[in-house]
């Protein structure tokens, strides 16, 4: 059997007009397809070891959109404004040939030292244009995945294994679908795979350390009335 093909079927939502060309179960062909004009402009399309997984679900405003914005804003202030690196949000494609992975995480952090060391590199557009890049290849320093009803199983079970194979140092899993927002931080082990970083207590007031960033975080859910808005705040402490 061709190792670039999976025995698992691709996931294609019923009723969605998404045409997946023949041959894209090979990572190189999938990467080429991502840069073609006919590649879908909406939805999340991931390549996971030969499977092409398509999720066309609409983003939930208050269980996905607001926590993503809060996390990206806080990380931007900590990483970008301090000159440590950069933060990407949505539609930033991360590719790892080692893990046979091509995904668009919710938030991605890349530190300058990792680019300088060659652990991750921006991939130029094709044809090349000065200052234009279309992918991050290698191992970003931090990836954030925010769970939704359609992605919870993939985010908790399949993606962590592949992010670990890619060498992503820290993985944040966020579940804001309940009354209390949950932030889980996982750290890459030297032997491979992730271990969960233990919070300093129980409940919504607990803080969870980030070994990568050297401080503690918690995600809080807030509501505003008249009209109703739900927002999230990522809090940080030494």
What does this molecule look like?
The chain is of the alpha+beta class and 238 residues long. The protein folds into 2 domains: 56 residues, no CATH class; 177 residues, tt1808, chain A (Alpha-Beta Complex). The chain is 20% helix and 34% strand. It contains 4 helices and 15 strands. It has a 6-stranded mixed sheet with strand order 2-1-5-4-8-7, with helices on both faces. A 6-stranded mixed sheet has the order 3-6-9-10-11-12, sandwiched between helices. A hairpin with a 6-residue loop joins strand 10 and strand 11. The longest helix has 20 residues. The N and C termini lie far apart (52 Å).
How many helices? The count is 4
CATH topology of the largest domain: tt1808, chain A
The level of helicity is 10-25%
Q: Mean pLDDT, rounded to whole units?
A: 91
CATH level-1 class of the largest domain: Alpha Beta
Give the biggest beta sheet. Answer: 6 strands, mixed
CATH homologous superfamily assignment of the largest domain:
tt1808, chain A
Radius of gyration: 18 Å
From the helix content, strand content and strand pairing, which structural class follows? alpha+beta
| CATH architecture identity of the largest domain | Alpha-Beta Complex
- Kindly report the spatial arrangement of strands forming the biggest sheet: 2-1-5-4-8-7
As a percent range, the share of strand residues is 25-35%
Shape: globular
**What is the CA-CA span between the terminal residues?**
52 Å
Number of strands: 15
Show unreliable segments.
1-15
Question: How do the SSEs run, as a string of H and E?
Answer: HEEHEEEEHEEEHEEEEEE
Total count of domains: 2
